[in-house]
Amino acid sequence: MADATNPSTPEPAVSLHQSIKAMLQSRILSGEWPPGHRIPIEHELMKTYACSRMTVSKVLTELASRGLVERRRRAGTFVAKPRLQFALLQIPDVKAEIIGLGAAYALKILARATRRSTAADRHRLSISQPGPVLAMRYLHFADARPFALEDRLIDLTTVPQARDESFAVEPPGSWLLAHVPWSAAEHSIGAINADPETASLLGVAPNGACLVLSRRTWRGAAPVTAADTVFPAGGYRLVARFEPGGGRADREAAPKNQA
Amino acid sequence: MADATNPSTPEPAVSLHQSIKAMLQSRILSGEWPPGHRIPIEHELMKTYACSRMTVSKVLTELASRGLVERRRRAGTFVAKPRLQFALLQIPDVKAEIIGLGAAYALKILARATRRSTAADRHRLSISQPGPVLAMRYLHFADARPFALEDRLIDLTTVPQARDESFAVEPPGSWLLAHVPWSAAEHSIGAINADPETASLLGVAPNGACLVLSRRTWRGAAPVTAADTVFPAGGYRLVARFEPGGGRADREAAPKNQA
DNA sequence: TAGTGGTCTAGACCACGAA
DNA sequence: TCGTGGTCTAGACCACTAC
Predict the structure, then answer these.
(1) CB contact B101 to A (< 8 Å)
(2) Tag placement on chain A: N or C end, fewer CB within 10 Å?
(3) The pTM is what?
């Protein structure tokens, strides 16, 4: 990554807008332009960098979408105050994760039931009307060692084709990821002390700490699935890396009425 | 927020490129254009939407930056294949979080030391050259109850002004957020069983499960800080909501009633 | 080598909102 | 009001790479 501490040195970036962006960014990150500082207006930047307005506009728009600057009509463009920290967490597909670790993957289904949703099921899926659901409980194995314990509920109204799926080739999470488009997801991460059954299944000490990842996904307004995945604490961490200045995965333009 | 299942309905978005983006997005998210599907080339989209190439290019570039599509020269633009799940996690500013819960915030500094970095410090900050660091250990309180225990290391080479900061008004995390711009952050989430000292400080049962959030930030290539925050498992969950279809990661109150 | 995306220009009109 | 950003056009040349 570029040193980004010498604002006067034009980075030999491959394109004009990238080099302009690098120069403005380095001024901001170095503190030369502190939060609240007004950035030259587009016409001045045009003259400074001898380019068209579209080019500087592209740069400033991108810096704004990354939260480095804030743009206000008539007022100008300002260095944004350091914002809340976001982390773009990649939620693991457990099978892919295990294979990626070079281990052999295996799935053991402990329980499977198709039923009309109970009140608890409906609460978990945030639905009000009863309907068919598929409830499962299974263990992911990595090289024959228990890796994670998962409880999953699938809304068969939204995903009827799950009813007859054996999940022998793909575990439910992977199967859903590959076959059902989703439009919204909610994740919640916590920690628990393993109860005796969980401890026994995962092969951890009684009362051992575990990481719990709860996930719910929707397709439009229709719930798709709710799942709780329990990882032994020793063997797993969720990792996120976020670089507003150069990451590939970008976040949506920040809401202006941010607190 | 729209259902996003009817791709033929132009969204009444405020600008042309936004409405085009919404239409392409809905085709992708609805599954009408599955992963691997080739999107019409820019000239065809120009004709379809009766606009200039700059406009469709802007749309496709943005979709690519968000990971929804992949662009390859000479080959075309394709719907991105791996629908990896991402979660946009809002990393909490502990003080703001506590105040947001309606509780009174207090900070108790347990230890503070300015020193030349030890080998362990350098490893934690991922630096090779020795230099001055500030190491701290403190407790966040919510209404006089322990809320989180934090161990933090600040690189005084990058942030020399931290040396004389008392952190009486703002805890180190909030202070850094407000005063030091950052360009990259890495977060890692795990679970631990509280050791006796931690359990005593946090007021949890011996061996009780805790959620651990480790955070490292950089400004350019220079490390800023590394921090480990330990939350009692019972009272805290990290929540993320992600909608690739243009949704925003909204702040969600920590659901305490979650089972 | 030809098709596709990547970039850039020199204008233009419009919308917003601070002065 | 009117300065500033927001958007859009109709071209142009270049870079890359799959065919």
Answers:
(1) no
(2) C
(3) 0.76
